[in-house]
């Protein structure tokens, strides 16, 4: 009987898990393992770039790649996981429900922004969570040119000063000038709970963010929390009111709700605790990867973040190890000692850091060139060529 590796999700982690599993099966000349991906569409949506313009172009087709590597694809959405029967329920594009058995399940269903815990966010705020919602935001920004002059029209509020919020905020001054004209009096405001801009980052990185913000005219409201959002702006908990037609929500990222269907420990973001082989605690046949995995990157207490940097390698290890468990091969414990950041700072440039202590190595145009190389080349899928894809899917292949 053929063995089934089922992968839920076709993001960075899911795509690389599929390729890595197929690679190991091929390396062992195994013809008895089926590798299947279930996702809403056979394409990689390049989420790290959703703050950019022309968001509809930020996709890469996966079907040719899956065809070249022998990976099966099912277009649909998984609604339920049944660990006791080793199966999932999924709905196809017509809304019909199907069952799919697995011998090994790799959960790579990603994460989402929680829009429900602050009043008015679901109805009135924009986000960069999905390609569709990022496209709605882009349309909103372009529509500002057709609105009458007002403080609300000219003001964009970004809720949250994490990486997504920073990159979006730094992009906005240039975008708004293009839309409203170079002489328009626009305002970009970041609402941040922390005591200073970039307060969760190293002092060295924080100072770069502060300098870039000052040069670009991006304002920060620190020690501030959003009380509510409505059609005309934001009200903060201390009572301050900001009139704005465009409020962007970037906080409260949570792992996919599917993690709650597995009776296993999760962290406060809903990520499943996994061992070094990325198996969910208490389940030898279920692997978690990407944004749904709470995985140690080293022996120093560091854990993978919800970034494509970690998702790519997590996916490669998860796919390899799921296949290894069916081939009676030795697993490869996940390790990702090196951590880097490359933060886009709009017209100012970018900043590149190395290490968990975020030592700044490059800034401005040098860092911007590196950022563009990473987001426009390195993180994209490999060519739809079997040998090339398998070489890159090796968990120990250099990320170049």
TrEMBL record:
The record's GO molecular-function terms, alphabetically, read: oxidoreductase activity
> Which cofactors is this protein said to need?
FAD
What is the top EC class of this enzyme, as a single word?
oxidoreductase
Provide this UniProt record's keywords sorted from A to Z. Answer: FAD, Flavoprotein, Oxidoreductase, Signal
Q: Which InterPro entries match?
A: FAD/NAD-bd_sf (IPR036188), FAD/NAD-binding_dom (IPR023753), NADH-Q_oxidoreductase (IPR051169)
Enzyme Commission code(s) on record: 1.6.5.-
Identify the stretch annotated as signal peptide in this record. Answer: 1-21
Domain FAD/NAD(P)-binding per the UniProt entry, residue ranges: 4-312
What Pfam families does the annotation carry? Pyr_redox_2
Could you say which protein family the record assigns here? Belongs to the NADH dehydrogenase family.
What name does UniProt use for this protein?
NAD(P)/FAD-dependent oxidoreductase
Q: Which organism is it from?
A: Citrobacter enshiensis
